Amino acid sequence: MSGKRGVDFVKHVAEYAASKGGFDRVLKMIKITGGGDGRAIGEFTVEKEHLNRQGTLHGGLTATIVDNVTTYALMSTGSHPGVTATLNVSYMSAAKPGEVVEIDARTLRAGRKMAYLDCVLKRKSDGRILASGGQVKYVDFDQET
């Protein structure tokens, strides 16, 4: 795997995004464990600051994870990170404090203008799907208008 397509590249992109002091810093808790060539795999432990008022993983944080980790997967194809055209998340089950959540994001297709990405979040202990989602990104920034 080349340096711009492998897991080390995905780790670098994730660390860079979390270190810039903007909203993406909320994702510093994610440890990238695999990926490259259109995929990004990671995990994190649900902590108190990740919870909603019901004491489970906050849906907004879940959506942010889907948004960012799918972008890491896209960038590992050599693509521009693009801008989100659509983002969707379906919530299936709750995650509680102390549980480890696995993230698996994939690039389904990266064309000249648009990229299609998906993501699944699972509880590590039993493999139960917590949420699934994805996005469509506009990536055609090198073309003259």
From TrEMBL:
It comes from the Eukaryota. GO terms for molecular function: fatty acyl-CoA hydrolase activity. Residues 54-127 form the Thioesterase domain. Signal peptide: none annotated. Keywords: Hydrolase. InterPro entries: ACOT13, HotDog_dom_sf, PAAI_dom, Thioestr_dom. Pfam families: 4HBT (PF03061). Belongs to the thioesterase PaaI family. This is Acyl-coenzyme A thioesterase 13-like. It comes from Drosophila pseudoobscura pseudoobscura.
